[in-house]
Every structure is written in C-alpha cells, then in structure tokens.
Specification:
With 468 residues, this protein is α+β, with helices and mostly antiparallel strands. The chain is 34% helix and 22% strand.
Length: 468
C-alpha cells in the first residue's frame, strides 16, 4: 500500500456534495476512414477486452489508523468504470454537453478506483466522444491531459492501441505529469512555500511592502485587495454546467501580433469580454474590474514531483466596453506582474506567492471573510499537442478540459491548445451561474471585437458548431 500525499488527501477531505473534487476531459473523434455505421458498438466490445487496469487505475482508497492509502482493488469490475452510452436524437453537440454536465455533477464511489470512462455514440456527422473522469486525488488535470494524449498516435494507421486505463505508463516517457493548475493546489503549494522558503522572507517582505504602495499609485498593478464582490464568488451547489468551444489559433495569433501581445494576453482579454457580456445579461456586472488568477509554471526542465507553480493576478478590464482598451489593461497588468517576478529568485517567487495567497486560500476554503475576495475567477491556459492525433485510426478533432469549480469560485475556465485550435472548457455551478452556455457566444464576440479593433478581417469558424 502507498500512502496518499498531503495534497492528494486534501482533495478527499475537501469533497462534499456541493463540491465534488474530480476533473475530466472530453475528446471528440471522427470515425476512421471506411468504418461501418456500427463502428462504435464494435469498438466498445474491443475496449471491454481490457479487463486488467494498470496503476493508478487499479487502486482504490483504504484507511489504516485513520490515514488514507492506495490499495490495489482485488474486486475490480470494468463494467462499473467503462460505460458505453448513446446520445438522444438528434445527437447534436447540445445533447453531448448536456450529458457531460449531468455526469460531471455526480460523485464517484470511494469503495472503487476513482475513475470512470464513457464511450459516447449517436453524434451527428460520423463522430463519437470519450468522456474520462478521475478524482483529483488520483490524478491532476494536466497529468490526465498528457496521459490522454500520450496514449494516442500521430500515425492514422496504428491499431491495437489500448484505452487509458490499460495504457502502460512505462511505455512512453511520463516526465512532467505532475503540475497542478487549480485553486486548491495553490493553497497546498502556498503552505509548502512558506515552510520551505523562510530564508527568502526578508526580501519578500520588502517586495510585499512595495506591492502595497504600488497598489495605491500604479493603475497597472493588481493586488489581492482589488477583486470586487461578484456572483462568480457566491456559494455553489453540486449541479454542473459544462460548455466547450474551439477557436482558430490563427485568429488568436493575428490579434496578438496586431496588439504586440502574447497569446495568453489575448486569451485573458477574450475571457474578460465574455465575462463582461455575461454579467451584463445577468444584471450582475461589478463596477470594478474582475481579477483573474493565472497559474504559471516555473519548471525549466522535464523533472517531475514537487510544486513549482506560482500565480499571478491579472486585471480583466471588465469595467470598459472598449476591446482595445481592455487589451491594453490586460497586457499592462500581466507585464507588471511578470516584471515584479523578474526581480526575484525562484525561491523568493515561491515564498512571495505563498505569503500573498495563503490568506486568500484560507478564505476560499473556509469563507470566514465572505466580503473579501482575492480574485474572482481562475483561468488556466495549458499547451497541448501540436500535431493531429489518432486513436486506432479515429482522428481526434477536439479535446476539452472539464474542470472543478470550488465554493466561491463558481466558474473555472481552462484553455487547451491542440494543433491549430484553442479549446475552451468552461465548468460552472448550474444554479449560481444560470445560462452559462451563453458564454460561448460571448467568447466569439470577444474575438470579433478584438479583430475589429485591430483592423483584421475575420471569419467565424467554430469547430464545435454549437446551436444552443
């Protein structure tokens, strides 16, 4: 038996009905060339032959003297974990995302290994989908994404490729599978940062003093004391709404070039625009601009293990209707944060982030100071595969992260790049943020607004073709 790490155990401790602590991914595939109409049913039969899962998919949680351990499940039942389902007609993306929203609301059985995989047929256009769900104690989102792509191939002719639960981790390099990019992990990382980096405290104390002073005089400076009260930070329920959309990476690059900005700057500006429009629809837009927390990795090699994640705060410019001004606000805010970090060593950056975000993390988890919100939303931008991928001849058309909202962080936006696309995955509390799927149209409007402001010609080209 292997004991759970303190961070992994934290995800078990935090889980409650209104706050399931699992994450997932949705993959959309084309049928292989020449595949028959009953291809998915036959494929399901093939996948059921993989009855012996590999670690960690064969591990379940057990307790010994009150401490949690991973233990191999001696009564593993594949039928419980692998499920072949069909969408109701007409099999649009609308029906697919409704199914994902429902399944993502359900907690998993802790008496079994904490994962589920759904093979979904009935999609229009000779397509099928895979929804893979795992508890955050078992695997973090970046690890799941990387494992999910490592099991695929760039060769459309490769066959006999196993499903994720039977994929041998040792068959390909698994370097770098441990970065965690979510709010709860930042709390654990912050605690470790304070404990392990005490030698940096004198320099960090001066940096914090300077930060407090600059927050009063520098409009580009973003601090933990600026986030306004917002419906995004209300209490949540266990019901989820998931929405996803693909956008052309070429469009985003063109905007970035026009504004002399990074792709991440553009993504943040697009999210700021969409959040502004959504909150205006709900008559809930704060006068002050929303603040986003953006996880950033400091890892400079392919090593694994440990926490090397810091967080910067960015002003999303939601207080202005001008796309160009919003872009300038976001860019200046991110540049200021990067400049601040550039004057510190890596150890000092970790300690600085720890000291700044530990109070915010405790507030997020305990709610003892409900009128203080360090940030309003978390936005993660994760680099993904740069080439088209295939699974047993089926081309992967899109891969969308399904994230984990937390109490007082009712919306999680995660963006993943794949080949020539940016894949947006939005996961929210269904009750706290009603009609959240409208954010997809607002994201497109945000891109178009920036294209107009930059003088670019644009052509709407959304791969998901959502019709809500």
């Amino acid at each position: 038996m292997k004991p759970l790490s303190a961070t992994d155990n934290l995800f078990l401790m935090l889980e409650k009905r209104q706050q399931p602590t699992h994450i997932a991914g949705l993959q959309l595939y084309d049928f292989p060339e020449g595949a028959p109409a009953n291809y998915v049913s036959k494929f399901a039969e093939e996948l059921r032959e993989y009855t012996q899962p590999v670690a960690p998919f064969n591990q379940r949680v057990t307790y010994r003297f009150g401490r949690p351990y991973w233990k191999q499940d001696s009564q593993f039942d594949l039928e419980h974990h692998f499920r072949h389902v069909a969408l109701p007609k007409p099999g649009r993306i609308r029906e697919l995302l409704a199914l994902i929203s429902t399944e993502h609301s359900n907690q998993m059985d802790r008496e079994r290994p904490l994962w589920e995989s759904y093979l979904i047929e009935g999609l229009k256009g000779r397509r099928f989908a895979i929804y893979s769900k795992q508890h955050h104690a078992l695997m973090d989102g970046v690890s799941a994404m990387r494992l999910g792509t490592k099991m695929l191939s760039t060769d459309p002719n490769e066959r006999n490729m196993p499903p994720i639960w039977a994929f041998d981790l040792k068959s390909k390099s698994s370097a770098g599978l441990t970065n965690r990019l979510d709010a709860t992990t930042l709390v654990a990382a912050a605690r470790a940062g304070v404990r392990n980096n005490l030698s940096a405290i004198p320099h960090v104390a001066k940096a914090m003093q300077d930060a407090w002073r600059k927050s009063k005089t520098d409009s580009a400076y973003t601090s933990i004391f600026q986030a306004p009260q917002c419906v995004l930070n209300d209490r949540i329920t266990g019901s989820r709404r998931f929405a996803a959309e693909s956008f052309s990476l070429a469009r985003i690059r063109a905007i970035a070039k026009a504004f002399d900005a990074t792709i991440n700057d553009v993504v943040l500006a697009i999210c700021g625009s969409a959040l502004r429009d959504y909150l205006l629809d709900q008559n809930a837009l704060p006068e002050q601009p929303l603040i986003a927390a953006i996880p950033v990795s400091l890892r400079e090699d392919e090593s694994i293990g440990g926490n090397q994640i810091v967080t910067i705060l960015a002003n999303l410019g939601t207080d202005t209707a001008d796309p160009a001004q919003r872009m300038q606000t976001v860019r200046a805010s991110v540049q200021e944060a990067k400049q601040r970090m550039s004057t510190m060593s890596q150890k000092e950056i970790m300690a600085y982030t720890a000291l700044m975000l530990t109070p915010a993390g405790m507030q997020m988890l305990t709610g003892l100071m409900p009128k203080w919100q360090a940030f309003n939303v978390m936005i993660s931008n994760v680099p993904g595969p740069k080439e088209p991928l295939y699974w047993n001849g089926a081309r992967l058309r899109g891969m969308y992260p399904v994230s984990m909202p937390l109490d007082r962080l009712a919306l999680n936006i995660t963006i993943l790049s794949y080949y020539d696309q940016l894949e947006f995955g939005l996961t929210a509390c269904r009750r706290t943020l009603p009609s959240m799927q409208r954010m997809l149209a607002h994201l497109e409007s945000g891109i178009e607004g920036l294209e107009v402001a930059a003088g670019l010609n644009h052509a709407r080209r959304n791969e998901m073709e959502l019709a809500w």
